[in-house]
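Last lecture ended with a question: if I hand you only a sequence, what can you say about the shape of the protein? Today we answer it with a concrete record. The protein is Phage tail assembly chaperone protein, E, or 41 or 14. Below, first the input exactly as provided, then the predicted structure, then a couple of comments.
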Amino acid sequence: MNEQTEENISVNEVGGRAYKLSRPFTYEDKEYKEIKFDFEKLTGDDIIACESEMYEVVGSSDVLTMMMKETHPGYQTVIAAKAASLHFRIIKAMPAKDFIRVTKMAQRFLLGME
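The predicted structure:
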């Protein structure tokens, strides 16, 4: 993790991590400044459900995408959203800088690097 990312992530007292956004953004009349992620709360059922939701994000179900889903930003988006108890459209609406950092957090979780 780079230094700038570490400054934006802090341990949440309840469990998980709080990610402070580089700038606030609004989605459906709600402003987001920080989002709490708890990847450890996810279950096998959540992971399987995320595979189905991924089709909605990426618009296809080709074999290559499914074989490499852990490295696909669409799947990472759905996993991050599930860990934050948010709809994946909220994650997609983030500023690009934050979207990239958040999806990389999900990727590290999926690859067992967290």
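Comments.
1. Residues 3-110 form one domain.
2. The chain has a mean pLDDT of 84.
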